[in-house]
Amino acid sequence: MSSEPLDFNKVVILDGAMGTVLQSRGLKPGGVPELLNLEQPELLRGVYHDYIAAGSDVIYANTFGANALKLARTGKSVGKIVSAAIALAKDAAAGTGVRVALDIGPLGELLEPMGTLPFERAYELFREIALAGAAAGADLAVIETMTDLYEAKAALLAVKENTGLPVLVTMSFEASGRTFTGCTVASMAHTLTGLGADAIGLNCSLGPDKLAPLMRELCEHTPLPVIAKPNAGLPDPVDGHYDMDAQSFAQILAPLADAGVSVFGGCCGTSPDYVRGVAERLKGRTPVKRTVRREGFVCTPVRPLPLTGVRVIGERINPTGKKRFQQALLDNDLDYILDVAVAQEDAGADILDVNVGYPGVDEVSMLPRVVEALQGTVPLPLMLDSSNAKALEAALRVYNGKAVVNSVNGDTEVLERVLPIIRKYGAAVVGLTLDKGGVPQTAEQRFAIAKCILDAALSYGIPREDVWIDCLTLTVSAQQEQARETLRALRMVREELGLQTVLGVSNISFGLPNRPLVTRTFLIEALHAGLTLPILNPNQTELMDAIAAFRVLSGEDEACRAYVERFADYEPPKAGTSVIVSSAKSGKTEKSASAPLTLDEAVVRGLKTEAAALAREALQNESELALVDDHLIPALDRVGEGYEAGKVFLPQLLSAAQAAQAVFEVIRASLAEKGGASVKRGALVVATVRGDVHDIGKNIVKTVLENYGYDVLDLGRDVAPEMIVDAVREKGIRLVGLSALMTTTLGAMEETVKRLRALPQPPKVFVGGAVVTPEYARRIGADYYAKDAKASVEVAREVLQ
Amino acid sequence: MRADIDEILRYLRVRGETPADLRERVERTADELAETLRPQYVYRAFPLTHQPDGILLSGGAMLPGALAEKMLRGCDTAVLLCCTLGLDFERRLRALERRDMGAAVILDACGSAWVETGCDMAEAEIAERFAPRFLTDRFSPGYGDLPLSLQPFVLAALDAERRLGIHLSESFLMTPAKSVTAILGVADEPQPARVRGCGYCAMKQTCEYRKGGTSCVV
Q1: Which residues of chain A from 273 to 312 reach within 8 Å of chain B, CB to CB?
Q2: What kind of fold does domain B5-211 have according to CATH?
Q3: What is the reported pLDDT for A160?
Q4: What are the residues facing B174 on neighbouring strands?
Q5: What single-letter DSSP state applies at residue A609?
Q6: What confidence tens digit (pLDDT) does each residue in B86-143 have?
Q7: What are the start-end ranges of the H helices in A533-649?
């Protein structure tokens, strides 16, 4: 190992392409380049020598694809390939001062949730490479050509947690400014900076010309050294030849040094000549100083959220005081939680608070599970809300992007327990202005705690923009003078410390009549006092309206665009104009004369909102069960018959099913309030079989079955037979639905049926999917063939009646 | 340009008279998709030789079987093509599935038609590149006796993981799901249509249209 670490106070020159050069020297396309480490060491030695001669300060060892997945069919181990590769490169670099990098490329399989590779499995695969590289004596690790931020995170954690090697991370972007998985430059920058990369940048996919604007953007978003390693232009579509020569490449690339880029190299299509051109222009230069934006930031890959105005944090993912939510947590009903999230997203939340703390719920396993499920469904950044440090760490580990943790406070023990985790995962953190002595009564005391939390965070290396302060709302009807103190403390924190401020506003009005009025008035006052991150229920339209108006007055909503759009259809309220008007006095539903709407019809026509409203009305006179049996099921049957007759088509069938779903949700909420049993008609499992990732057909079946009141346990897609068997055994399931779309996955369906048949109490099995035929269903021993979702309802009726 | 509306309605298994509001929803969805998402594609030409056991492409892949033989008769070059709507479409579809399953199946069908339209765009570009020579019809691994197991080769030859973000599962499924690989032959003579009709289709046993005595005109 070289004694000195890589010096980023000077421009660093990396190498150029390996694959392109190997191909030009005889490697067949489609061959495994990593095998050359064992088979043709002289060829590689030549490439290394040429890059060193061209001026590279760092050469990448030939280990890009040396992971256990890609090497599986070669019969060679990761350890063997990596140690041979590093030894060769070190040999070539001996005596030159050039550093040898362990090169880590993508695994070649897509991670969850878009793909099927679990995060921790990816971590293990990278860990194996990192350990092998460190053992072989690599000077540093480079993680490159990543298009999935989640995969980059797994690799970065694996290197940092298992070796002491410095790590460079580069990702590949399209000209659109996003990677294939939708990651933005800003999201990448903040996430990888927070996770402790030593330098970050972009490589591959584009030439230096197209990459330039993205490089400039990256320079604004990270204080780390920035790397540019572009392709030699674009490949010709017919013959694959790259179109930029070495001279133009260097000429276009070099000016990026003035924007703050300080690490340079080349990717596909480049060669030692390209690197020489760049080295001649830049080697030894002192990097320019640049200004980095420091406004505060959280993100998911697809949703960067700079904190440059009011950002609404949705508070609804929280079981406190919500029976339906508590029930969902105890039942592991993630779908309900996801629906709560989606509703908040649609209502305009920017960040979602996630709290799953409830007696009987293991937060350490539940919080990361919920985070993963949410990240597969909503693009919004998350606020992880727990006082359990283990749960926080487990959730931060699987979180994709930069999250915020809610919360720490002035208590030293809490700070010492949580801040190291915040630092390690690069999250932001909310500090509550209270300590062991409780909530101080004066603004000055709360400010003092805020300052103490900030100092503690800074001492751990957490940047000040990542510290958000909550000055705490107390109920005004109980401690009237405290409303002023909260607002005063808030103003002090904002003006004197310049920090982001968080405040849950809803509690202010507890115990008072017309709570929304008090809450809204307080919200507006707090915004004027400098509140940037209100925590509230975004489904309360009057609060979101107030924020829309505030954004106009503060100038954040440029040209009032968002406000005008929000109220484009606004009409002053007039009596008797809406279709359904809930009248507080009569407790009955009025309908406009032109369109009398019954619950049954609302379901048939797929009118979700109306159906739910009518169900709420109906429940005042009818029981939950009667609602299901007398209205819901007959309405769904009517739609089903129309579908059979070819008069109603699939989209309409599904819209009706979802209207029914809304009615069911009303019924469930009503039952949960009463603490009564559910109206479920029996449980079944559905899954798309192993190897099959196309699941819309299965989802259609699930939607329809749920809306007939069946409790559908959806195991997802690409589900291994043993997982299905386990679920059936654990829950005593009597019916299983399996879907397969491709001829190549029918084998997995057959195997699953066989295993289910072998159980002591085998469940009934129905199968379907594009390539499944009735004959095939019989042959593999399934009990039923369901040609469509409607047919699956018939099966469920027969089996689960 | 937008996707073929009648084709989308066929994917949705709409037979007989299409309700006007349904057709309108489909048109609106297809238009919005066309305005907001461009199909991405890459292609590459490979000289080929006719061998006793199949068609050998430069770079080493062998296309076995009667279909490849029939399609590429008289051709000296094969163009491999991959077209995708990307994960962006996948994300939109999932977001919609949670909100409105009826709208989601419409979007799904629009996506299937739109990626085919993307292949048409690519084909037009390829035809221009090779003019005045002629192209055969497109055909794909999984059609007739051309095995799906060619997918890894086609995607590797196109460097499709790196250039389009395509991943292939062990059972040869592509992610993003709305992705198509295809092969076109290049010849000096005009090429007659050669793959038409249900005989080439993997769906022939379960096809709703065949049961109804019609076809989807693949």
Answers
A1: 302
A2: NADH Oxidase (3.40.109)
A3: 98
A4: B168
A5: H
A6: 999 999 999 999 888 899 999 999 999 999 999 999 999 999 999 999 999 999 998 8
A7: 541-554, 561-566, 599-604, 608-618, 624-626, 633-644
- DSSP structure class, residue A153: H
Residue in A102, A138, A97, A137 with CA at minimum distance from that of residue A13: A97
Of A455-464, A571-580, A723-732, minimum mean pLDDT range:
A571-580
Q: For chain B, which residues make up each domain, given as ranges?
A: 5-211
Per-residue pLDDT tens over the stretch A210-243:
999 999 999 999 999 999 999 999 999 888 889 9
Q: What is the tens place of the pLDDT at every residue in A487-517?
A: 999 999 999 999 999 999 999 999 999 999 9
Mean pLDDT of A394-403: 98
Site of tokens 């050069």: A21
Task: Calculate mean pLDDT across residues A529-552.
Answer: 97
Q: How many CB pairs under 8 A join A and B?
A: 151
Q: How far apart are the C-alpha atoms of A501 and B215, rounded to whole Å?
A: 63
Kind and range of the H or E run holding A746: helix A746-757
Do residues A257 and A285 lie in contact, with contact meaning Cβ atoms separated by under 8 Å? yes
Does A449 score more than 70 pLDDT?
yes
Cβ of B100 and A655 within 8 Å? yes
B206 token code pair: 């379960």
Strand A140-146 to A167-171 pairing: parallel
Contact criterion met (CB < 8 Å) for A745 and B19: no
Sketch out chain A's domains with CATH numbers: 12-282 (3.20.20.330), 297-540 (3.20.20.20), 541-568 (no CATH), 598-674 (1.10.1240.10), 683-800 (3.40.50.280)
Name the residue facing A771 among B60, B129, B202 (closest C-beta): B202
The span from the CA of B129 to the CA of B136, in Å, is 14
Over the Cα atoms of chain A, what is R_g?
30
Hey, which residues does A228 pair with through a beta bridge?
A: A202, A264
Q: Residue B166's Cα: distance from chain center in Å? A: 14
Q: Which of A94-103, A171-180, A516-525, A691-700 has the lowest mean pLDDT?
A: A691-700
Instruction: Return the H-helix or E-strand segment holding A249.
Output: helix A246-253
What letters, b where the CB count within 10 A reaches 16 and e where it falls short, cover A70-107? bbeeeebebbebbbbbbbbbbebbeeeebbbbbbbbbb
- Residue A203's DSSP bridge partners are A229
Q: Which amino acid is at A578?
A: S
Which residues in chain B are closer than 8 Å to A28, comparing Cβ atoms? 59-60
- Contact list in A for residue B90 (CB cut-off 8 A) is 114
Rounded CA gap, A637 and A604, in Å?
9
Number of helices (H) and strands (E) in chain B: give both, helices first: 8, 8
**Closest to A141 measured CA to CA, from A160, A168, A105:** A168
State whether A700 and B101 contact (CB < 8 Å): yes
CA atoms within 13 Å, Cβ hemisphere of A755: 19
Q: How far apart are CA A208 and CA B9, in angstroms?
A: 44
Q: Which of A771, A744, A765, A739 is nearest to A753 (CA)?
A: A765
- How far is residue A287's CA from residue A10's CA, in Å, rounded to a whole number? 6
Confidence of residue A464 (pLDDT cuts 50, 70, 90): very high
In this prediction, residue A788 carries a pLDDT of: 86
Q: Give Cβ neighbours of residue A747 (< 8 Å, ≥ 6 apart).
A: none
Instruction: Find the residue in A nearest to B169 (Cα).
Output: A691
The predicted-structure confidence for A301-348, as pLDDT tens digits, reads as follows 999 999 999 999 999 999 998 988 998 898 888 989 999 999 999 999
DSSP label at residue A540: -
Q: How confident is the model at residue A576 (pLDDT cuts 50, 70, 90)?
A: low
> What does the pLDDT read at residue A729?
92
Q: Do A159 and A126 touch, CB atoms closer than 8 A?
A: yes
Could you tell me the sign of the dihedral formed by the alpha carbons of B90, B92, B94, B97, in that order?
negative
